[in-house]
Each structure stands twice: as structure tokens, then as C-alpha cells.
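Appendix B. Raw example, untouched.
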Amino acid sequence: MKKIKKIYLPLSEKDIKSLSVGDEALLSGVIYTARDQAHKRLVELIKKGKRLPIDLKNQTIYYCGPTKTRPGKIIGSCGPTTSSRMDAFTQPLLKTGLRGMIGKGNRSKEIARAIKKYNAVYFIAIGGAGAYLSKKVRKLKIAAFKDLGPEAVYKLEVKDFPVIVWNLN
């Protein structure tokens, strides 16, 4: 039986090289949430040669739009969204140094090749487990695009956030 790997974020090249497809891992550190509209804005900024509101070098993006936070909680339910919806925006973000992505479902063949090219990793989180995953979030702060509401970019500090390696270099 394989041991669950503990990974402390941001991702290092050594972390990525230590992983194999199918590995289970527990992520601790900072991840950023971003969905379709946030990705679109980030890529527009890249195309215009403007500075991004967050430095993506070695960072991990979680394809998630948290639900409204209930009183006394850090975050609402925060389950993964379908990753293929972000495929059109992924390569420019990988070029800026993004190393990890978390979502659900398969990626296109083009994105699978880009993950290898840019020495990155794609993790899946279990769909339908948003309430459970929210318990792994220790801190939350809006990092960019507050006007997008749940689709804003949130900076999450997580501890032992469970994922499975799906694609990597």
C-alpha cells in the first residue's frame, strides 16, 4: 500500500519529481482559487503585458468558487469545478510559472502536454466533497477581482488538503 505524501506549498521541482500518477497527497500551505472569469482576466492581463495581481511562480490554483460562508466558519463549501473549462487559459498561466492545478475531471491532450512541458502537476480533488474540503481551510482572504464574488481569486491557507495526482511532467 502506497504512503500518502505530504507536500508543503509552494510546489518545488523536487516535490513534483517525487510524484507519480495515482499518488495520494495532502497539501499544506497556500493555494489560490480561480474559476472561468478569473482565468479570463488573468490571461487578458498577461496578453496586455501587465502585472498580475498575484505572483503565480510555483503556486497552485484550485478550480473552485466557494459558496457563501456561514457564521462561525472560515469558508463555505469549496468543492472542485470541472477543470477542462480552464483549458483555454492554462498555457499562459503555466508560462508565468504556475506549477499546480487542482480540479476534477480530465484535461485535454494539449494541456496534458503543456503540464509536461512546464514541469507542472494536475491534481484532482473529490467532487461532491466540498463541505469536507472546507474543513481543510485554515485562512481565507480575497487576493484579486473581488467584484467577481465567489469567482474572485481567494488565497486559502490549507492543511492536509487531500488530492490525487492525475497528470504531471
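End of appendix B.
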